[in-house]
Hints:
About 40% of the residues lie in helices and about 15% in strands. It contains 4 helices and 3 strands.
Amino acid sequence: MDFEFLNNRDFLSECKFATARSSGPGGQNVNKVNSKVELRFNIEKSQLLSENEKTTLNTKLAKRISTEGFLIITSQVFSSQLKNKEAVIQKFLKLLNNSLKPVKTRKKVKLSKADKEKRLKNKKVISEKKSLRKKITDN
Length: 139
């Protein structure tokens, strides 16, 4: 996966990982193995992010940030802790990349006179076609 906006910064050094028991089906294995992985990243205390990037992340990810200021991402899809850790890292990097990607500004495009006439002509043709479908009433 290409994370062009992260510029190969080592965010994992600032992440904290925690494991817990997964929920859901899985028999006895679920009750004894900590396969759920939780990634915690403190945006405000990050030294790898600029102030501008921090404010962008805080506004775009406001609903995903805890009251302590941590961005928390979890994965419990796999029964393997290692696979869940890889999945949570991928989720984290993808989330950062998508959030830091600049939003393209919309350019207004003015329709040409020919395009306007073509659209109106097409509307008129459709209108006539539909008017022919109506019942003829004798008055």
